[in-house]
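Morning run. Coffee first, then this:
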Amino acid sequence: MPSTSPGPEAVPPKAAAVSSSDFAQILPGAPTASVQATATFIFRHKRYVTYITSSQLNILTGPTKLVQALAFAEGLVAVAVESNTGKIAVASKSQVYVLEPIAEGWTKVWWEKSLCLCLCVGKEGVEDEASYLSWGSEGELLVGGSKNLSLFSTIPSSRTTTPAVSPVDGEAAVEERKALWSKPVASAIQYVALCPSANVIASCSWYDRLVKIWRRLSFEEGLFDHTYLAHPAAVTHLEWRPLDQHMNERRGSSISGRHDEDPEVLWTIATDGVLRIWRMGGMHDADIMTLHTAVDLVGAIPQSPTLNTNGTASHSAKPPRYAFIIPASSFSAAVNAALGRRTNGKISHSLEHLKDVITRSPDVIVTLDGHGRMSAWGVQSIGHKRRPETPSAERAFHIAHAEDLGLTVRVGKNMRFQTWFADDAFHLVAHSFDGHVQWWRGDVETFFSPSVAGGERLRLEADWSGHDRPLAGAIASTDGELITWSKSSDISLWSRSNTGQLAKKGGFSTQKTVYAASCSVGGKLINVAHDEKVALYRTDSKQVDSLVHDLSSENGLQLAELGQDDNSQSHVLYNRTTALFFREVADEIGDVLLEHVGMMNLDNQCLYHFSAVSDDEVMYLAVDLTGTLRRQVIPTPRTETEDELDMPISTNETIETGLQQPSLLEANVDLAVAASGDGNRFVIFDLRDGYMEYEQDCSQAVEFLKLYKNAAGNQYLAVGYKSEVEILVQGRYEHHREAKTWCKVKQVSIENIGLSITTLAWCGDGMLAVVAGSVMFITSETVLATDLEPEVQERLDLDARTKDELKVTEVSARLAQPAPVWHPRLLTHLLYHGSYAAAVRILRQLSERLKFWSEGEYLHSALDLPHDAVMEQSNTSAELDDATVRDILEQLAAKKLPAISDSEQRRLQAVVEALHYISKYRRGLDDNALHYLFSFNLQLSYMAATSTTTTNQPNGTSHIQQPPVPQMSWHDITFASHSSTQQPLLDILIQHYDNKLAWPIARALGLTTWLSDREALATVFESLAQSAYRSTSPPDPTNAALFFLALHKKATLLALWRIATWHKEQRSTTNFLKRDFSLPEAKTAARKNAYALMGKRRFEYAAAFFLLADDAGSAVGLLAGQCGDIGLAVAVARLYGGEQSECLQTLVRQRLRPQAEKENDRWLMSWCFSALKERHEAANALIKPLDGVRNWQQDDPRTMVLYRHLRKDRSEQEEYRAVLRAARILRRMGFWVLALEMVKGWEFKHVSAAATHANGKTANAETTTNGIHHERPSAEDLAANEPSLLDSFSSVPDSAPAVKAVEEPPSREAQAAALLTKLQAKKAQAQQVPTMAEKEKPKPPPTQFKEPDANSLLDSFGF
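And here it is:
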């Protein structure tokens, strides 16, 4: 019973309104070895090709365009089409179905079952078996079977009774139709065909030398005249010549010659190698059909290798010949189309030859010997023109001959052809009975040329092959080959041909159910997992060895290839409860055997994945129901053991995915991908550092995930849904949050063709095999620029209007390539890492290069600067002068730089301006303040492009807006909080806003959170109070109440209320403020007013009354909670309660620090510890491992800059990992220069574990720079030589020349020297006499930090 889908989950037929996406290659499956397995027709001005593969009917419109695939319950044997109506008839041995086209618009066409034709039952009760179909006139369908010849009518008006219906495969019922008449036949029919006028039927049985002709005497009843056409050998093919579709229009016209009344012509081919042409006789002729002429197909190719050396065939059997016939009408139309082309005055001898050929109106006979030789002959067509009664009219004439034709036939195999012309283009579909359907294309001029080489006449457009059963799985081997297996027992091997197409390399049947397979290195052996054993096969289907297992196949089995050593290859077979490790071992004589290694029990509540890290290591992943992913790298098991393998999973290697009950897990050495339980969300994790690189919510359930890493290290991910696949590639880490690390570059769909995706497999760079039913869709390795997302187009600097074609590998490489040194974010990070001089050096070099560079020319990504020259920390000429800045900006405005997008080039201009801006303050600000000021100015430059200073109001007046204020992040605030030049920085910011500092500006700048000096903060806060008071007209004391009360200036606030006579609350508020708020009743009244104001949602004013009640905790909590103003809450806590006040401690410990830990915000976490005066914890927060779901932004490499500033003389235990982690992030961001500099120049500080000497002194400490140890003084020496102000004065060496004092008299100089000598003597004496407590108390052993080796740093990073 046919079905338009493989199962109940398929798309309903009426939804099938859109054809599938284009692919680079389609492998619909192996065609059925049947003489009527293919058909072609034109419907609605479009050419369709159909062919059957086992129980599936494929309908295609091109070599790579599958329109619909319809599955049936039984294997199909024949397909026939009716071009006028587009109906398709398909037959299995027991059933015949008629599929009717349904059109929607001009582009949406699909087929549905409309009729089920009931075959007759023979006299002995044996059911008829259909074997051949033929369409007649007015919807008639002739079915040739093993017992009967039956004629059906498919038009509605032919119903004789109420139509009977029957359900089909659980779908909508279809109408059943009985035969109009049925005639018994003596033997099973091989061929049967109605002539174009439907007057005559020609039939032939298997191995029969007689063709039976049935001439209809009545169209209402099955009455016939019969005759037989005798052949000297078995008939292998018969075919009626099709009518010229324009014949009726030209019949009797003056532009056409006279036509015969009976144009029906029958062509037959027998095993004697002769094609015979039979002509229909007249109504009064004695014979129904007469032999017109015959063509010797064997003699047509005299030089064929199938003949003997003397050029003759053997007497025992004629060599096989394959032929197809082209009607005269089609051939003449194609030649005329070729003649109508423009030739630019050139004479084509081939066209002149064909022009002469068509004057005879020939039917063209093309014969092939199967070994690459082709010969074309013409026979003057019967019925097209009045022929003279001469013998030459019936004699075949030669047209063309060719050798080395690409179209060949395997020895002993049959081949059937379908041909047609599209204008002058020649199309040939060849069905080979060895499991291939080939689509060849050429043109009429070249194919029938008398001189063109054979290899140039046709080119192969498609080679359709594959399995004849629905596929169950596919996997790519390490050698780039593809292994596929069907649900039954068939296994096929595929490899890439020279043309890039996937070609079948071999295959075999295992006779057992296949669950998984893997290919050994070299591709000569295949491991196959069956129900009770793992079998090792050669590619020629010979089983080499097997290994018994007891793993349950209920939830499927997975087979993974592990590492190899000198004489063995390791594998693992696993399900959700057990893992079996085994290996292939070569014995002494070279035979390969399977050897059991060990078993490992697994938790059935987890999903597992095994993969090889190297030949000696295996990565083992498990994700549980809570979404916790655990990773462990273990040695590859190679020693046989009877005990369970001990492979514990380290809890230190856990990653939180944030998914509940994951349903899918896919991984490779670097990445892991997991999908949620409902499949509507998937996440990608970096296994090295545990970062969530990408997450996506899906509108439909994810069913397949497949990762791929090419030789260049680029990562690809295929996400498969029910009928769609998305291909994503990995890009660089981008600091702006709207940029995605993974970008979608391709989306393919097989929706509306009646199939659902079964599995996915990568088969090369950017090429994916999508398996659905018995069909394999191979995606192309290219993508149009217009099909990419706008974000990807911008990152690749593509013009969205152009239709450039890019390779997927090129897109992936460009998205992940290192950033050039002129990339704006690299310059930004150079400044953040304290390398201002390097940024200036790059800009100067860029300015010099751009003077002589034009667009389109090559520009070195490092501007030909060596790494050492780029990162040299010399301060010589480190300023960015005005001329250089002006020159760079002019060049950037006129020229488009490569490797960066337009938006990035605009960002580069802003970076240049920001660097020039801070260069004026480098001498007065430290690095932390410059860091803050650079971010401030850079954001101002970004905002300047979108903001304006004035806007016109509707009434024509001009309203002056506030200047733009950048929102400074905790990253900038934390750096500024550790600056020692905060006051100059504050002055610069206040001056930028013309000394008009309002609270919105201060809040955005974070002034109250990074300003350390309490007096400076009080000054700023008082200025903010005055600004708030004057923010309205007339001034309102309400706006300034919180500020003055936080500064303990109630009297000032009371004075402002006394003069605010216009305010409606002036009298009551003035009287209330006159109270003594040290009394309990006054505090109670203030609290009541605060709660009342909270009810009115006047939260800031309510906080002011809480301060009147001396309840700073409530005020701060209200500001941080309901108001959401952390900066104001911090300022009030610091100014009202002091730096160590309880309200500040509560705010930081109970609100800000938990928030930072929840969000994994290292900057806020470090700021909180700094606010609590815990410097050590502030440094540790920047490098310690984080919990929960993490992303790379949380481990910003800039944290290492601040950490180096806070750590002092001590390195934390996590510092080594943090350095490598930051270097890897910099590398993923494309900043290889900075990454290399970090691992190369990072300085580790620690105290060694040397023994304590008898005199109480410890061994010398060491400082390590990238593994290079430098001796440091001992602790006692450090204490003795502790820096002091006195140490800056030293006596003048004897060898130094005397310096004459000018400004001071010699007496004062002598007194200063004497005083200095006394003070230094007292200091030395105090250091030499330890206290009693110091003598008695033993010293604890120094903390030891295990110093990493220099090579391990570089190796872990990848250098």
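The two ends are 63 Å apart (CA to CA). Good start to the day.
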